[in-house]
Amino acid sequence: MGKSVLRIVDVWKSYGELEVLKGVSFELMEQEVKVIFGPSGSGKSTLLRCINMLDPPDQGEVYLSEQNLMEPGINLNIMRANIGMVFQHFNLFAHLRAINNVSIGLRRVKGVSKEEARSKALKALNQVKMAEWADHYPAQLSGGQQQRIGIARALVMEPDVILFDEPTSALDPELIGEVLQIMLELAKTGTTMIVVTHEMGFARAVASEMLFLGNGVIVERGTPQHFFVSPKSDRVKTFLKQLDILYGSHKGLLKLSKEEEDK
Amino acid sequence: MNSIPKPPNLAEIGFYIFVKGLPRTLILTVLGLLGGFVIGLSLAIMRVYGGKELNWLASGYEKLFRGIPILVLIFLFAIYLTNLYEICIGDTCFGIEPQYRPLFGVFLALALRSGAYQSQIFRGALLSVNPGQEEAARALGMSRFQALRTILLPQALRLAVPSWSNEYAVVIKDSSFALTVGIVEMTNAALQISSNFVELWAVSIGVVAIIYFLLTYPITRLFGERQTKKLKELGMGGG
User: What is the distance in angstroms between the Cα of B67 and the nearest Cα belonging to chain A?
Assistant: First the structure.
């Protein structure tokens, strides 16, 4: 872990009367995996949308590799190409085959040639084990397969960081494992990521830090060890207990090594 | 026609209508639809993405041209305003040749009116593209314009095909009003037969009715059903 990839400072965001984020700050280093969790409505998705400036914060600062994204006059399109995004509902381009879903960003945003974009896209599809589905349309694929293509679409741009917005929460239970497995492999190969998820097995295995978001502020932060052994606030304790009831059956979805299990 | 004393049979009537009338009917329909496409798509983009002023302008245009009968528009553009189709600077004039001015006027009337309706079709199609599509495009680093061009429009145009084929049916039928300004399209060709052979009035009108039907129904059905099925396969639109 060396240089800072992303630093957000005192970010505030409201929609009309509703204050969603009330001063959130954290820093993400290279190759770090940050897991954000918390009850719905706590501002997790809004936070991600503030980071890639699809919904710019009202107040505060967002630095991508020490470049302030809130600075007026900055080309946000160029900056966004460096921030990957994986959506809860996949949002694959419905009229494009898998391969073109992955290559279109390279072609249109980075101006890569057709052949090079195709070969890079195939490589990315291979990485998420979807190469043999390259010529299928999104609607012909399962949710898990679609999400893996969504990951490849983000990956192929070689971004500084990939944001995952509840990537498995729209999936049937039997499809969650294949997506988590890909994310686990990405994390192990040093991809810098921020993951909003309630899959605690995943968090335990790869998170360098976990943030518990509640009512627009970071209520508690720490290593997975901290959260699973000795969480401080009662709110976090109750929430984790509820998660265990809901998602307890997801244990075993991930093929973890012995060492990762013991963490 | 006047020199033929023997009344034509059914096949001859059909043939005459085709040879005499079909070219003008098709030219007016195709050009009217294409002109309407350019106008309609521009208006739809103005309405969905333009600011308040552009939106106001586009919706005003729609109201105006949807509120005037096609026949009135044809009289306006094919008779009253035909002098405008030629621009003279000094002694040199350029523009539409006088004999083509009524045809050009009917084309304008059809295109301007169809544009108002096509605007609604494309506006609805643009709005029914899932908002997540634009979000994903922007997240990849595309500008708003790039997202519109590479993601939203290709999807909206596919979604618009069934309604658009309906608009084709409207324009081809409305092109028959061109007969009122002396253009020999299919309806006018049928009337020519009936004015020469009064006893064939009902037959020639019946034949032209069937030709119109055969030119519209199979095509709207093909585009409507096929495309709806295709869209369903792509998981686009409500079905």
Answer: 36
Q: What is the residue whose two structure tokens read 């609604």?
A: B120
Residues A47 and A170 grouped into a single domain: yes
Least confident of A245-249, B41-45, B85-89, B225-229: A245-249
Give me the CATH number covering residue A258. 3.40.50.300
| Every domain of chain B and the residues it spans | 24-183
> For residue B108, is pLDDT > 50?
yes
Q: What residues of B are in contact with residue A141 (Cβ under 8 Å)?
A: none
The reply to whether residue A81 touches residue B155, judged by beta carbons under 8 angstroms, is: no
Query: How far apart are the CA of B59 and the nearest CA of chain A, in angstroms?
Result: 29
**pLDDT at residue B238 above 60?**
no
How far is CA B117 from its chain centroid? Answer: 9
Domain stops at, among A102, A134, A158: A158
What's the CA dihedral at B195, B77, B98, B40 to 10 degrees?
Answer: -110
Q: How many domains does chain A have?
A: 2
- Least CB-CB distance to A91: which of B132, B142, B146? B132
A226 shares a domain with A173 = yes
Residues 6+ apart with CB under 8 A from A73: none
Q: Do B141 and A78 touch (CB under 8 A)?
A: yes
Q: Are residues A176 and A55 in the same domain?
A: yes
Asked which of A158, A184, A203 is the last residue of a domain, the reply is: A158
Domain formed by B24-183, architecture: Orthogonal Bundle (1.10)
Q: Specify if A182 maps to a domain.
A: yes
- Residue of B68 and B4 predicted with greater confidence: B68
Beta-bridge partner residues of A11:
A24
Q: Are B154 and A81 within 8 A, CB to CB?
A: no
A117 in the same domain as A132: yes
> CB distance A85–B136 less than 8 Å?
yes
Going by DSSP bridges, is the β-strand pair A4-15/A59-64 parallel, antiparallel, or unpaired?
Answer: antiparallel
Q: In whole angstroms, give the CA distance from residue B172 to residue B28.
A: 8
Residue A33 has φ and ψ, to the nearest 5°, of -120, 115
At A206-242, the pLDDT tens digits run: 999 999 999 999 999 999 999 988 899 999 999 998 8
Question: Whole-angstrom Cα distance, residue B58 to residue B44?
Answer: 8
Do residue B139 and residue A93 have CB atoms under 8 angstroms apart? no
CB-nearest to B143 from A52, A54, A77 is A77
Residue A18's domain comprises 4-82+161-262
Closest partner residue to A87 (CB to CB) among B132, B141, B235 is B132
Residues of A in contact with B142 (CB under 8 A): 77, 105, 108-109
Taking an 8 Å cut-off on Cβ atoms, the answer to whether B154 and A78 are in contact is no
DSSP state of A168: T
pLDDT of residue A66: 87
Considering the domain architecture, whether residues A125 and A173 belong to the same structural domain is answered as no
